[in-house]
Design brief:
Residues 101-120 are annotated as: Disordered. With 252 residues, the protein is α+β, with helices and mostly antiparallel strands. It has helices at 9-27, 36-47, 50-57, 62-77, 81-93, 128-137, and strands at 111-113, 118-121, 124-125, 144-153, 156-164, 180-192, 201-205, 210-214, 218-232. The chain has 2 domains: 5-101, no CATH class; 111-249, no CATH class. The chain has 6 helices and 9 strands.
């Protein structure tokens, strides 16, 4: 007796594709609530997972399809804990439990160095402690806005900001470029920015609101957000701060 597709790895994999298509249709249904980031993130999932799905679906035997589908799910989940959680949530919503089909979760490394050299940590929540760490390790008053992007995400407004800020600590003789602080702000409630007034920043993070002041009169208010720092670090760099704002500067 054959197993129900609902209980197979291939069925779970197919349910993820179905859920993705429905979410993309929902996010693009109305230009007034168009959610580009949601569409991008979902499309990015399938950018290198579509072939494994069809590779699994076209296997000659049910055993082969199941084996390939399990491998495809493991490959998809290996991208990170956030991706894995998304997969489990989407599959369970479709009535196809997925957790038992995946390998055990593996803790993500705090930092990674890509092929170009930059060390990148995970995004960390913007809290009062994180704000203190950033202002301790970087001269925000001398920072310069390099990028400011405001974008609608459904009924919400999101913000993305890149600040180039001098270090307050000795980065070593090879650390000549200014580090970039990347801030992702969610549920933005107030914005004021003049492109001619982009020098200097001050960050305040409370329990319910983040306030980022830019220049003399600019400001950006949001409900919550994340931050990271990224730049090229020589392989022997080992200095980092306890608070985590220098997470990108760990030796890998």
């Amino acid at each position: 007796m054959s197993r129900s597709p609902n209980g197979t790895a291939l069925g779970a994999l197919g349910s993820l594709l179905d859920a993705s298509l429905l979410r993309i249709a929902e996010a693009s249904a109305d230009a007034r609530t168009y959610d580009r980031r949601a569409i991008y993130e979902i499309a990015d999932v399938w950018d290198n997972n579509t072939f494994p799905l069809f590779h699994a679906a076209t296997a000659r035997t049910s055993i082969g399809r199941e084996r390939r589908a399990r491998a495809a799910l493991a490959w998809m989940a290996d991208f990170g804990l956030e991706r894995r959680s998304w997969m489990v949530e989407q599959a369970e919503a479709a009535g196809r439990p997925l957790e038992q089909l995946l390998p055990p979760p593996v803790a993500e490394p705090a930092h990674k160095r890509n092929h170009r050299g930059p060390v990148t940590p995970r995004y960390v929540p913007l809290t009062a402690e994180a704000a203190l760490g950033l202002s301790t390790d970087y001269d925000l008053a001398a920072a310069r806005v390099r990028t400011l992007l405001l974008e609608r995400a459904g009924t919400r407004l999101t913000g993305f900001l890149v600040l180039a800020a001098p270090r307050r600590y000795d980065g070593g003789p090879q650390a000549v470029e200014l580090p970039e602080l990347h801030l992702r702000l969610e549920d933005v409630t107030d914005v004021g920015f003049d492109s001619g007034d982009r020098m200097g920043a001050a960050l305040q993070c409370g329990a319910e609101e983040i306030v980022l002041r830019i220049g003399a009169n600019g400001r950006l208010d949001a409900a919550w957000g994340f931050c990271l720092a990224t730049f090229f670090i020589p392989p022997l760099m080992t200095t980092f701060s306890k608070c985590g704002s220098r997470l990108a500067e760990l030796c890998l």
